[in-house]
Write a structure and sequence with these properties.
- The chain starts with 28 loop residues before the first helix and ends in a 6-residue tail after the last helix.
- The chain contains six helices and no strands.
- By secondary structure, it is mostly helical.
Length: 151
């Protein structure tokens, strides 16, 4: 970076949902990443892991405005993450959702079977591939069979 270029304050950026053609139109978290790093303006920078970029774009677009601003903390961590570990990161996200987040939701339901499914999901080995995923799906299908209102 040339000495005359000012450092962009990430906290001064207001993240918005959706895609944008230029920074003046608004920025999602991935577009803010390219803006801050002075890369071609895009929500799919080549230097960022595709799994992380897709996850952050989705989170950005689904979050309420106040929560969306919390995504700015990830911007400095994304550079150079397109390192061939995208599949491993995808399995980590799947594992987190199925063995941590889903059980948290199930625990809020006043039903012994829901709590049993939550405990079984937590007790699974880390989901790193298809075999572990198939077992998790068995528990998820059992949970769906309970006909619980998760809305």
């Amino acid at each position: 970076m040339a000495e005359t270029e000012a450092v962009i304050d990430i906290e001064s950026i207001q993240l918005e949902s959706g895609g944008h053609e230029k920074p003046e139109d608004g920025m999602c978290v991935m577009e803010a990443f390219t803006y801050v790093n002075r890369l071609p303006f895009s929500d799919q920078p080549e230097c960022v892991c595709p799994t992380l970029a897709a996850f952050l774009r989705h989170w950005n677009d689904e979050a309420v405005d106040a929560d969306r601003q919390e995504l700015k903390r990830y911007i400095p961590r994304l550079m150079g993450t397109n390192d061939g570990k995208s599949d491993a990161r995808a399995w980590l996200l799947i594992d987190c959702l199925l063995r941590e987040r889903l059980p948290e939701v199930l625990d809020t339901i006043d039903d012994a079977k829901a709590k049993e499914c939550a405990a079984r999901l937590r007790g699974l080995s880390q989901i790193k591939g298809g075999a572990e995923l198939e077992l998790a799906i068995l528990f998820i299908n059992a949970t769906r069979a309970l006909d619980l209102d998760l809305a």
